[in-house]
Design goal:
- Helices cover 33% and strands 20% of the residues.
- By secondary structure, the protein is an alpha+beta fold.
- It has a single domain (4-83), classed as Phosphatidylinositol 3-kinase Catalytic Subunit, Chain A, domain 1 (Ubiquitin-like (UB roll), Roll).
- It has a three-stranded mixed β-sheet with strand order 2-1-3, covered by helices on one side.
């Protein structure tokens, strides 16, 4: 049975980009960020938004105030924000 949580970009350019990620297929917060990043790049490529692709910087992305364990035991309707600011 899928174990989805919702992750939303909190980013000056990609604010609001949202995807549900199945936690059964990730092992860390870094995996979640990589998965969301891949989903964003795929979307931008499908839409042929080449200029925006160059603005995606995975190095700065993080999730505030939650550990991977916190995310795993959270309620399914919980939403987490992936941001690129301090």
């Amino acid at each position: 049975m899928p174990n989805f949580r919702t992750f939303i970009y909190s980013h000056n350019v990609f604010q609001g980009f949202t995807r549900k990620i199945d936690l059964d297929y990730v092992e860390s917060i870094d995996d979640i960020i990589k998965k969301l990043h891949t989903e964003l790049i795929t979307f931008l490529q499908q839409e042929k938004l080449k200029t925006l692709i160059r603005q995606v910087d995975i190095k700065r992305l993080h999730i505030h105030d939650f550990t991977f364990g916190d995310i795993l035991i959270s309620e399914p309707e919980k939403v987490f924000y992936v941001c690129d600011h301090q």
